[in-house]
Amino acid sequence: MNHILVTGGAGYIGSHTVLELLKLGENVVVIDDLSNSSKESLNRVETLSGKAVTFFEGSILDQDLLVNIFSQFSFSSVIHFAGHKAVGESVNKPLSYYHNNVQGTVSLVEVMEKFNVNNLVFSSSATVYGEGAKPPYIETQTLGCPTSPYGQTKLMVERILADVVRSNSDFKVANLRYFNPIGADESGQIGEDPNGIPNNLMPFVAQVAVGKRAELSIFGNDYATEDGTCERDYIHVTDLAQGHVAALNWLVNQAHGLCEAFNLGTGTPYSVLKIVKSFEQYTKVKVPFKFVPRRDGDLDAFWANADKAADKLNWQAHKTMQDMMEDTWRWQSNNPNGYNA
Ligand SMILES: NC(=O)c1ccc[n+]([C@@H]2O[C@H](COP(=O)([O-])OP(=O)(O)OC[C@H]3O[C@@H](n4cnc5c(N)ncnc54)[C@H](O)[C@@H]3O)[C@@H](O)[C@H]2O)c1
């Protein structure tokens, strides 16, 4: 019986993707060291799907554990989410990010090659387009210089995977370059549950709305955008999860080794201020905010050209801004303390 291995599957995007895979009847094995997640996410995924997940707690840096897992299951493919993702933290702890994200991937791919598992979907990021890139970002653009060690790890892993494909003509890679995932499963049972102070806008907005934080700080209102706040391409996490399923289906049907990148975004930019106003409009909950100085490294605006994913993967984002706001609020208001109820 074939299985899919999901690294980092207890995390935010991973848990939503595992849910979509289980709903389609796939057999899923998760490895996660729970460094930024809770096993409770997978308990809830099991309840929602009515299907079991096989879970291993541990790191992809632990090759003995990986070999043990690969010996027990016949994997058709791997979806690789495991990694650390806090941009600011990566500036202060670059070696920890290179070790976990880059060395972790090398460790995983070595074991994949050993067991002849040749299909890999990797969580990359729009950050690989770098500082000087002109939006909308398109996959044919030359990659730039990411502004943080976190971004560098994504670029390095993409380059390492391209080299692996050059050396192994059976190996197939889809690098999925995410834009800004937000929202939660429509059940309100799983969602984004960051440790400590949220780094991303949406969990911060939700935590202010639920009364856990007093007000939102908006970093800069003098950017070269319509209302002066940064513009990003926000994509609903369920659309993103379905993008992984589409990429996997495409990948396993390719006859030869390849390494292809796909932007997963909506193609529409929204400003920070517009997000706050939309949240208030659709949830009827006020979000007090103040403007504070810009943060280092934030770009004015970027969004995706997502045509390639539409053409090749037959995937498009369908959820609306209203879905993103209502689903975020359903998750946060049902679970004010995240998974630590
Ligand atoms: N959320 C975003 O805005 C965003 C944007 C672009 C790319 N990504 C990438 O997508 C992936 C998933 O992001 P997310 O938002 O779900 O983050 P997340 O932190 O919720 O999920 C990552 C998971 O990986 C686990 N993990 C970390 N290091 C591990 C290791 N060495 N071995 C095993 N498990 C490990 C964590 O415990 C966590 O459950 C990450 O690689 C991230 O860099 C995220």
Strand order of the largest sheet: 3-2-1-4-5-6-11
Shape: globular
Mean pLDDT: 97
Can you tell me the CATH class of the domain at 2-181 and 235-265 and 305-318? Alpha Beta
The number of helical segments is 11
- Give the CATH H-level superfamily of the domain at 2-181 and 235-265 and 305-318: NAD(P)-binding Rossmann-like Domain
Query: How many beta-strand elements?
Result: 13
Q: Uncertain segments of ≥5 residues (pLDDT<50)?
A: none
Largest sheet: 7 strands, parallel
Structural class: alpha/beta
Report the portion of residues in β strands: 15-25%
Helices and strands, with pairings:
Layout (H helix, E strand, L loop, with lengths): L1 E6 L4 H12 L4 E5 L7 H10 L4 E4 L5 H10 L1 E7 L6 H6 L1 H21 L4 E7 L23 H19 L4 E7 L1 E3 L18 H9 L6 E4 L11 E2 L1 E3 H16 L5 E7 L5 E2 H12 L5 E4 L14 H7 L7 H14 L7
Parallel strand pairs: 1-2, 1-4, 2-3, 4-5, 5-6, 6-11, 7-10, 8-13
Antiparallel strand pairs: 9-12
Helix pairs in contact: 1-2, 1-8, 3-5, 5-6, 7-11, 9-11
Nicotinamide-adenine-dinucleotide binds next to helix 1, strand 2, helix 5, strand 5 and strand 7.
